[in-house]
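Sorry, can you check?
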Amino acid sequence: MSFLIKNCLSRSVCRSHLLRANAAISIGRRNNAATPTLGTSKKLFTPGPLMVTSRVKSAMMADIGTRHSDFEYVIKYVRSAVLGVAGVSADEYSTILVQGSGTFANESAISSMFSKSSGKVVVMQNGTYGRRMNDICALAGVRTLPIPMDLDKLQHTLAQNKDITGVVMVHCETSSGVINPVAAVGKIVKSRFPDISFMVDGMTSLGGLPVDLSDIDIMTASACKCLQGVPGISIVIAKRDAVEKCRYRSNSMVLDIAPQHDSFENNGQFLFTPPTHVMLAFREALLEFEEEGSMEGRSKRYRENWNVLTKEMADIGFKQLLDNREHPDSFIVTTFKYPKNPRFIFDEFYHKLSSAGHVICPKRTNYPNSFRISTIGDIHVEDVHSLINSIRGVCTEMRISLPLVEGNMQ
């Protein structure tokens, strides 16, 4: 078959797919299905992707060559600034940037650190993202010992198993909002078993919550959480001696930490095509982070948002899953219980809020009959007040009387 015929057939197939897609959209409209409001800006009360400033988005309007010295400068700045956010020095730590979402960084770290090892990894988990760490280990061929987020259980597990090579955990478990005891776990691991590698998923905490990395060998993070960049770049912050331990272990070419670290150090470049526009946005986001007062300034705003949200939701009658007094730092994501009212249907509640211009977290929580609202990103107190007004309005539309009756929660 000639190239011309193959090319014509390929175009014919593509055109057929487009026609079917357009037909499906037309049928959806005839059936009064919800039409996507693409291009319509809404306030995102989600833990990433999240609201970013016009300044960060505008930074992506420039085109830049991946091998050009200007882009090498961007890479150098981002790598250094990330270490500054984490409060560690380039003498002891390295920033390895990974193309993709935060899960790419987790898979990169796990496969680089623990693949081709005969030992076991303890996975401490109390939510969706802890369980995902265990799944990544399984796919990488790493044997695991999943345990609950319990310090006594951790000590017992470490004492009873002599073949443990690593401990991994999530700092902020965003499927519930709980902040896990990273410092206490790190102290247990390193004080008694210094050769065991300790890895932390700090996706939603870097830039919003203080983390002492002294006992952490590798911490992963994301540009599009508290650092308020756009999706597309994730982060591995690794002790330099941990990078050396990762050599020749990964079963992936593109997710191997050590050669990417070497490339950054030796020639300042990504090994594989980077998302240049995302990197330009990330640099701008890091500049904004510093201008806001770094972690102190940013977490202050986030906490103010959270205080308004929790107080006004309590005034309406919604009950939180976590007690603020017991979880004073759980201001990244807040989980609320469903009202025990037959008229409250979460999908309807969610879509009505979206139509009003406010997007909260979709169903993705550890706990049944609950929903989550995040107050990080370029969100301010006036935005939270606007969300609360929309929630009141939606409840009225759904014929749910406010305030909700005390104890009438699922």
About this structure: The longest strand covers residues 93-99. The chain has two domains: 55-291, 294-397.
